[in-house]
Design a protein that fits this description.
It is a single chain. The chain is an all-alpha fold. It has helices spanning 6-41, 45-49. It is rod-shaped. The N and C termini lie far apart (48 Å). The mean pLDDT is 91.
């Protein structure tokens, strides 16, 4: 349907990589927040997340 558009392909690849990197940071931030609540605030947030 569409012809090969290399600049668009590279741009989409860059956008995909950026979204993936943001996702990794969000996962790490979520884990740090859970550990913060468990060890610093000392509430049962982490225990409620575990099965």
């Amino acid at each position: 349907m569409l012809g090969v558009d290399r600049p668009l392909g590279h741009r989409l690849e860059d956008i995909h990589e950026t979204i993936g990197t943001i996702g990794y940071y969000l996962i790490g931030l979520h884990a740090l927040a859970a550990l913060f609540h468990h060890y610093i605030v000392r509430d049962d947030t982490l225990r409620r997340m575990l099965p």
